[in-house]
Write a structure and sequence with these properties.
The protein is α+β, with helices and mostly antiparallel strands and 254 residues long. Helices cover 48% and strands 21% of the residues. Helix 1 packs parallel to helix 9 and helix 2 runs antiparallel to helix 3.
Length: 254
Amino acid sequence: MSGHSKWSSIKHQKGVTDARRGKLFTKLTREIIAVVREGGANPETNRRLHLAIQKARDNSMPSENIERAIKRGDGTLEGATLVEVVLEGYSPGGAAILVEALTDNRNRTIQDVRNTFSKSGGSLGESGSVTWLFDPKGLIIIETANQDADELALKAIDAGAEDVNNEKGYIEVYTKPEELEAVRSALEQNSVIICSAELAKMPKTTVKLDEHSALQVLKLLDKLEELDDVQHVCCNVDFTDDVLEKYRAQSLVR
């Protein structure tokens, strides 16, 4: 299942420029607005809102931005009507890609995503074509610098994790979606510092691609995530460390 989180790790290592952080804040704002409209403005009763607020805080989003997004969601402040759109497609090499978006213009978003796939050598698929390849999971990332990774993994298991995967420099902790916040809380009470925690779609099985195709997929994922309406992107490629390092180096040069 590690293809998604390895990609997330590379994005984190690339660093976030002011421009990219501004775009990230926009995406986080949209997510808060959407979950408030769906389940209400009380994070104690709206689990998705609680998670969205925590994700915003994890990314250093100012409290006033969070409060403003909540008010837009409950109608206290005026805001655009957003709808959730799930799009499915195939990368160069045939890997499955799932795109989740929040938009005030469904047709525009579909066209933007379609064009991005096409220009990158991929294609948009029919509804249901790849969704079945992914399971909803809670994903917690813990950096292991100057820490015992095995000890952190044991703490995660004791906290209720379904699975733990040890990667270079960090561990991935997988939970049931409804248990994400409970596991996170238990870890923090045990003095574990959380790098990130989110609900994610994880591939049931992964595929390996040659280096050229894998680099093309990474570029496609990057371009999709740069679209304003796109919230989350995941794929079922198991990227090798060599490919990820090569792409990271190329990204830093650009």
